[in-house]
Structure formats: structure tokens, C-alpha cells
Amino acid sequence: MSPNPSNRPIRSFVIRASRATDSQRKALEQHWDTHLIPYEAGPLDLKKHFAESRPLTVEIGFGMGDSLLKMAQADPQSNFLGIEVHRPGIGKLLHGIAQNNLQNLKIMCHDATEIIANCFDLQSVERLLIFFPDPWPKKRHHKRRIIQAEFVELLATRLAKGGLLHLATDWEAYALHMIEVLENEPSLINCAGAGNYCDMPARPETKFEQRGRRLGHGVWDLVFEKAGS
Ligand SMILES: C[S@@+](CC[C@H](N)C(=O)[O-])C[C@H]1O[C@@H](n2cnc3c(N)ncnc32)[C@H](O)[C@@H]1O
To answer: Residue 15 domain-assigned?
Structure first.
């Protein structure tokens, strides 16, 4: 993220004050060390953290983690790494990982922009997912949106050739911003054809999506492929 005049990075999140439930707190205490990968500003040794070497899917901002858990259960031939800073959500996902004894899903608790910049080798990720990122609707907050040209350029460098970047939002103005930014990134190709959103995305419904639909919002999915073969 670009620095602001005070030189502090502009964050795309605020740490929400909501309290963890007893079960989430217990999971945070019991399973943190087993399923959390500690953040260090250096290349991540995936072999050390996953039982087997498999194609990697990274989800940024998994929220309560229900959809990430479903994806990891449904696809044991892939490894999944979820990035989130909201501890009750991390507790909920840890509980799910432990209950289902999942070996192919790990978590990192840190700002995703720093993790992507510092921890992943070039072309090391098969799929990057960002579902229903905070839309920061007020104009003066647009700089806090995670989808910015600079960050998308960085994401694209971490994607393997032929890998996918999948975004979704329930905020039309953000969808328009996303498609403009992604289509301006020369190494990404819109799988739905220029100017189009994706009609039949293969992903479980997320918690924020359900909330958006209850409020009468539409949903826009964008699926872009990294150029090359
Ligand atoms: C609006 S919620 C959506 C959660 C989930 N994807 C869903 O659809 O239910 C956005 C989430 O992204 C997380 N987030 C935002 N910016 C982040 C960042 N830079 N690093 C890690 N997590 C981030 C927030 O903590 C929040 O939980």
C-alpha cells in the first residue's frame, strides 16, 4: 500500500472489536501453533508447513472462513492458505480445521499486502481469491481499498502462468473499479471476455455475500488468468 503523509502505511482493514465466542477462543489457544504460519518478512518455506507439495490457493480476507473451509475440504489435491487479521474469524476457522483434521489448510494472521510482497516467490500461487473485500464506499476512503493498481500488479507477479485471480464484490461501484484496474494490468486476461463479469463462478457463498443478498445487493465476480502457458 502506498504511504500516507505521516509515513504510516494505509491499511485496507480496521481490527473489528467483536469478541470471540468461547469456542473460537478455545480454538485460538489450542490450535494456533499447529495451523498458523507465523509471519516473517522473508520467503515462505511451503514444504515445511504443508504435509505434501500441491498447487497453492491463497484467500485474502477470509472473514469467518466458512467458504475457505468448504473449498479446502472439497479439494484435497490442493493446498490452501488463508490470510486474515480478524481473530474471531481465525478462531472459527481453526476450530473447523481441527474438527475435520485438515492437512491442506493453513492460516496467516498479518496484513496480506505485506505477506504477498515478502513471503511468496514469483509465480508460486495457482489461485488468488479476494471475496467481498471491504468496499470503503466513501470517496475519502477509496485509498483504503485493497484492490489498487499497484497491489494487482504485485498479485500478478505471484501468480503462476495460467493461474487465476478471482475477486467478488456486492458493491457495484467497487466492481467497476475492480474491472478497470484488472483490465489495465497487462499480464492478466479477463476469462469472461473484455468488460464482462463472470456468470457462473465456482465458489461457495460467503458470509458477507449472504448479508449483501439479504440487503438486496447484486454480486459481481471477476476471474482473470495470468498470461502465458
Ligand atoms: C468484508 S470482509 C469479507 C470476509 C469474507 N471474504 C466474506 O466474504 O465473508 C473483509 C475481510 O478482509 C479482511 N482484510 C482486509 N484487508 C486485509 C489485509 N490487508 N490483510 C488481511 N486481511 C484483510 C478483514 O479483516 C475482513 O475480515
So the answer is: no
In which domain, by residue range, is 38 found? 25-226
Verify whether residue 22 is a known catalytic residue. no
Q: What is the pLDDT of residues 48-105, one digit of tens each?
A: 999 999 999 999 999 999 999 999 999 999 999 999 999 999 999 999 999 999 999 9
User: Which CATH number do you get for residue 155?
Assistant: 3.40.50.150
Residue 91 φ then ψ, to 5°: -60, -40
Marked catalytic residue, from 33, 45, 111, 134: 134
DSSP-derived 3-state class of residue 180: helix
Total number of domains in the chain: 1
Q: What are phi and psi of 14, to 5 degrees?
A: -120, 145
Examine residue 58 and state whether it is found in any structural domain, yes or no: yes
Q: What number of other Cβ atoms are within 10 A of residue 131's Cβ?
A: 26
Does pTM surpass 0.85?
Answer: yes
Residue of 59, 129, 134 to test ligand 1 pocket, by largest number of atoms within 8 Å of CB: 134
- The band of 151, judged by pLDDT with boundaries at 50, 70 and 90, is very high
Amino acid making up residue 197: Y
Distance CA(182)–CA(192), nearest Å, equals: 12
83 falls within a domain: yes
Q: Is 122 among the domain residues?
A: yes
Which residue's CA is minimally distant from atom 5 of ligand 1?
Answer: 63
> What pLDDT digit, counting tens, does each position of 91-121 carry?
999 999 999 999 999 999 999 999 999 999 9
